[in-house]
Amino acid sequence: MSNIARMIEREKYHEVTELLDSFPAVAIIGPRQVGKTTLAHEIAGTRPSVYLDLESERDRVKLSDPGYYLRQHSDKLIVLDEIHKVPEIFQEMRGVIDENRRKGRQAEQFLILGSAAIDLLRQSGESLAGRIAYCEMFPLNIREVGCDRQEQLWWRGGYPDSFLAKNDRLSDVWRRDFIRTYLERDVPEFGPRISAERLRRFWTMLAHLHGGLLNSANLARSLEVDNKTITNYLDLLVDLLLVRRLQPWHANVKKRLVKSPKVYLRDSGILHTLLQIPDFEALLGNPKLGDSWEGLVIENVVSALPGGAHPYFYRTSAGAEIDLLLDFGQETWAIEIKKTTAPKLSKGFHIACEDLKPARKYVVYGGGEAFGLTQDITAIPLLALMDEISELQK
Question: Structural domains in the chain?
Answer without folding.
Answer: 3-136 (3.40.50.300), 143-391 (1.10.10.10)
